[in-house]
Design brief:
InterPro entries: DUF429. By secondary structure, this protein is α/β, with parallel strands linked by helices. The protein is built from ten helices and eight strands.
């Protein structure tokens, strides 16, 4: 019996959104679909049939940031002792962003202060539609969805995690596809290898699907008890386990 994993590299515009559908059948993993250009309906349809779907976009905003906006709108914001870097950083970063930084030394883009907010706003609308359809859209990864960060996963796997995006980086991106193939010998690109080498949105969608498979098989790190309640609201970036010792995390 096969299981299907979906990877989504979400952009604000459908034309830049990557979508991958990975079918695991025994020891084989076949990429049934890889495309760049996916509207909301296509994404919802793909997620609806997935065992797990990895989404490369923040699923929520920092709780303290949300609370600040509400207090500011109501003219009830308490004056901080300082508006310096630490105060603003604490508002801009989610709990999961800090955990990712501690583990990988990579800092996810801030959904509160960076342009990643535009894809996140699109996802908020998609999430609402999926919730209306009865899909389990829990942001902590306990349902169908899990938030992913391909660059951090690549770093944990010991693969090139920088310098593979954009038209100018076709050569290193093709090299990354080669090394990923060597690491995942069961992966059947099914005719989609060239697209992934030429378009980073397609490659990131494939990586998101592969990470979703890791989550489904218990080979990724869930929210720790300290952050579980926050993860329900803010989202949680699922990172692959690096070593056997991490199984107890």
């Amino acid at each position: 019996m096969h299981r299907t994993y979906v990877g989504i590299d979400l952009a604000a515009q459908p034309r830049r959104t990557g979508l991958a559908v990975l079918r695991e059948d025994g020891e084989r993993c076949v990429l049934d679909t890889v495309r760049v250009g996916a509207g909301d309906d296509a994404l919802i349809g793909a997620v609806s049939g997935a065992a797990k779907a990895g989404v490369d976009v923040p699923l929520g905003w920092p709780r303290r940031f949300v609370e600040l906006l509400a207090a500011h709108a109501a003219l009830e914001l308490s004056a901080p002792e300082s508006t310096g870097d630490d105060w603003r950083r604490d508002l801009a970063m989610r709990a999961t962003d800090r955990v990712v930084h501690r583990r990988t030394a990579l800092t996810p883009l801030s959904v509160a202060t960076d342009r990643i907010a535009h894809p996140a706003l699109r996802w908020a609308g998609i999430e609402a539609r999926m919730r209306d359809l009865g899909l389990d859209v829990a942001r902590d990864g306990s349902g169908t969805l899990c938030e992913v960060y391909p660059a951090a996963a690549l770093r944990i796997w010991g693969l090139a995690h920088r310098g593979y995006k954009g038209d100018k980086n076709q050569v290193p991106r093709a090299a990354l596809v080669d090394t990923l193939s060597a690491r995942e010998p069961s992966l059947d690109w099914n005719g989609h290898r060239a697209l992934c080498a030429s378009a980073d949105d397609a490659l990131d969608a494939v990586l998101a699907a592969l990470i979703a498979r890791e989550v489904d098989h218990g080979r990724a790190v869930p929210p720790d008890p300290e952050h579980l309640e926050l993860a329900h609201q803010e989202g949680w970036i699922w990172l692959p386990r690096e070593t056997p010792q991490e199984v107890g995390l």
